[in-house]
Amino acid sequence: MGLFIIGDVHGCLYTYIKLMEHWDPKTETLIQLGDLIDRGNHSSQCIKLAFELQSTFKDQAIFLRGNHEQMMIEYLNETNNHLNWLNNGGVETLQEFKQKEVDPFFYLGWIKSLPLTWHNDHVMVSHAGFSVMSEDPFDVRDTNGLLWNRKPLLNIGKTQVIGHTPRLNGKPEYSAASNSWNIDTGAYRNICLTGIRMRKDGKFLEAISVPTDERDLTKEKVF
């Protein structure tokens, strides 16, 4: 099976659906690298769609945890710095859940089960990547860990695929030094959502970018 890896969706449901039209479940494993929620207009529906896709396709549809899912978990569990989410899109996301009559607690167990990585012998996918500065990359509170890192990446001997830090030119970026791809192309910034197609041995095949659908954003949420 090949790989089809999608970057940060951030509530951009209609853009997400358009990009998903390029996924072939017969020949590819789908991997979404976190941050399904916040910023865009349709966080609850993005969660619902991901939940249903994984329920239908099982191991062929993989969803990872991003820092925004982590903030949501901490808010709903009232743990650690749980109020941080409200300042990072959580207020609007909660309002949207309420408006759509979707109970976020219904999906909480599933969100908490989302892994931090997907990998095989050649490819490592995570939200923010293995940093040169992280003492424990799997610590969900480590600012240089797999959920929060914005520092240069380590070359770990596999092709890393990450998101988290938007490429404002709308193009996925490859770093030869770390053998890594950043595929966050700023969907919530009204740029585009990107997926990359790879062979399971890490060979890059193509990038597919879909411009952000205007229904996914309001002017106030683009910054």
TrEMBL record:
Database matches in SUPFAM superfamilies: Metallo-dependent phosphatases (SSF56300)
Gene Ontology MF: a single term: bis(5'-nucleosyl)-tetraphosphatase (symmetrical) activity
The protein's name in its UniProt record: Serine/threonine protein phosphatase 1
CDD domains linked: MPP_PPP_family
Gene3D superfamilies xrefs: 3.60.21.10
GO BP field: RNA decapping
Source organism per UniProt: Mongoliibacter ruber
InterPro entries registered for this protein in UniProt: Ap4A_hydrolase (IPR050126), Calcineurin-like_PHP (IPR004843), Metallo-depent_PP-like (IPR029052), Ser/Thr-sp_prot-phosphatase (IPR006186)
GO cellular component: cytoplasm
Domain Serine/threonine specific protein phosphatases: 64-69
UniProt signal peptide: none
Pfam families referenced in this protein's UniProt entry, alphabetically: Metallophos
